[in-house]
Design brief:
Number of domains: 2
Helix content: 55-70%
Radius of gyration: 25 Å
Distance between the termini: 73 Å
Strand order of the largest sheet: 1-2
Structural class: mainly alpha
Strand content: under 5%
CATH topology of the largest domain: Multidrug-efflux Transporter Regulator, Chain: A, Domain 2
Number of strands: 2
Shape: elongated
Order of helices and strands: HHEEHHHH
Number of helices: 6
Length: 144
């Protein structure tokens, strides 16, 4: 009998559902596993680490397409450029997250100001000089 982990064992060890494993296979994130004589999937033990890496990368904000690229770069190390790896992609993702945090900070402050100004109705608030919401004024020069 071949050694390895069946789908349920792998899913439990990696903390995911069995459907997640099949989805990752369809997306090309996991290699198609061997099969037992009965047709059950049989994954190599190191697949637990790969699934955990995928889930961790997702929690860090990487899309599955980005994860697939990272995994393919890792598999083909011999031909990769230094900038194609995790470090460069993590730096880019960090910059993206920092931009989102800055945007969210502005939104938070604007919402705090709206609450403090007592804005209960968007139309009424838009007409009030006290309204802190950034309504865009449309003029005839704007091309409308």
């Amino acid at each position: 009998m071949r050694s390895g982990l069946r789908s349920g064992q792998l899913a439990e060890a990696a903390g995911v559902h069995q459907q997640t494993l099949r989805y990752y296979e369809r997306r090309g994130l996991l290699a198609e596993p061997d099969r037992t004589l009965g047709g059950h999937r049989l994954y190599p033990p190191e697949t637990v680490t790969i699934v955990r890496v995928i889930k961790t990368a997702q929690r860090l904000g990487f899309t599955l397409d980005e994860v697939a690229e990272l995994l393919s770069v890792d598999v083909h190390r011999h031909g990769r450029r230094p900038e194609a790896g995790l470090r460069a992609r993590a730096q880019a993702k960090l910059a993206e997250v920092e931009r989102k945090i800055a945007d969210l900070s502005v939104i938070r402050e604007t919402l705090r100001e709206a609450v403090a100004a007592g804005c209960d109705d968007l139309v009424t608030c838009a007409e009030s000089p006290r309204c802190p919401l950034p309504f865009v004024e449309l003029t005839s020069q704007a091309g409308c």
